[in-house]
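Re: the request from the purification team.
They wanted to know what the chain is likely to look like in 3D before they choose a buffer screen. I agreed to run a prediction and write the result into the notebook, where they can find it.
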Amino acid sequence: MSVGSVAATDDGAVAAASVPADITIRLVRTEEYQRAGEVTAQAYLSSYGKLSDEYVASLRDVASRVRGGDVWVAVEPSGEVLGTVWIARPNRPLAEVARPGETDFRQLAVAPAARGRGIGEALTRHVIDLARERGSHRIVMNSGPEMTGAHALYAKLGFERLPEREGAWEVQPGRWIELYTFGYDLAPEPADTPPAERAWTLETVPWDDPRAEALRSEMDGEIAPRYADRLAHAAPVAEEAQRAFAVDPGTIVATVLAVDESGAAVGHAALRDLVHDGTRDLEVKRVFVKPRARGTGVSRALMSELERIAQDRGAGRLILQTGDRQHDAVVLYERIGYRPIPIFEPYKAFPFSQCFAKELAPSE
């Protein structure tokens, strides 16, 4: 089995009833890494024969997987993880099988005890929904010839074989495996594939610009549910959360939008003047990019513009806060030079916060 292949789903998924309404599919939480990894490994080990120790270790290593893509889990109300799937982030393929404009996924897995409940189908349909939302024209994945249960599920949902992409893959030095490739078309393939990185138009606008407000509302709808359980158990919830995460418009010194070629605002970022520990810093706030524009350089463009503004204002560094469930944000910040720092006010009441800083060169 290839490290890049789709994992074991339940052989009975094709005939399974729909997933119970109380099953939730969401991004894996930091504290669930170990359990999600065990579910993935158990699914493979119970369905397939000889797997290398290195490969099984990679199945368990959810922390590494979320640095390269998004791990989604199917969970019961009790929090029990029933299945997992690893999905590429927009315009950031997991494997070479994917081409520009496509979404690929790997390691679809269902806990042995949960097979026959339609979990594999629900996770696959979730991949389809995400790909459609981000504007992908096709979904692709590799699969080993022995994964007959998964193949039946894909056929039921409308996936087709892509023989032109199939062949032997060297999954470890000297170890080759013949892999099938499956695709699910969502739209006609574009005549001209858009470049992965684009030049975006950046606009500095008032905080209450309607486009900015709409993007912040969309961000809240995506991010807030990830932390609802955490805030529900924090005390005092209302007062501390309002103080930590609400934004006083009077403290905002810049709001920047990224606008695409059609004139639509697809990205938002802002700078807040924040005083803490006797040192005046500028804090990065509310960085958000619409799903269809992610992976195309919008976030980097917004962050670069914030750094330019901060330098012009004489700031020696930028600081920011993000939650430990925003894996893609952490990866971005680390790649562009931000380093972890201790939690600063007003986030100390929320230990799931992660804080970063980047030293800025003096403006020339």
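For the purification team: Confidence is low (pLDDT under 50) at residues 1-17.
Please add any questions underneath this entry.
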